[in-house]
Backbone:
């Protein structure tokens, strides 16, 4: 049975999504894959240099940075911005 990860969005990411409503649907569509596998090969994900367990998810011209916290089975999105 697959583990389901809890998603946590930082205040900055929530604010980014509120100011970019056209991104919300695309972002939440991708989260369906991330809750099951935070390194899903169907998504544009790369390791984020300089931080262990951190990844970059790219959706169009936007980047979302997240950390995988295995102890609590959490995916924590801590930053979002345009390229």
Residues:
């Amino acid at each position: 049975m697959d583990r389901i990860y809890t998603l946590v969005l930082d205040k900055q990411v929530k604010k980014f999504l509120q100011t970019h409503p056209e991104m919300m649907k695309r972002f939440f569509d991708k989260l369906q894959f991330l809750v099951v596998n935070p390194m899903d090969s169907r998504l544009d994900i790369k390791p984020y240099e300089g931080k262990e367990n951190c990844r970059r998810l790219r959706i169009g011209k936007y980047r979302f940075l997240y950390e995988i916290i295995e102890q609590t089975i959490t995916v924590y999105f801590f930053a979002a911005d345009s390229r």
Q: What stands out?
A: The mean pLDDT is 91.
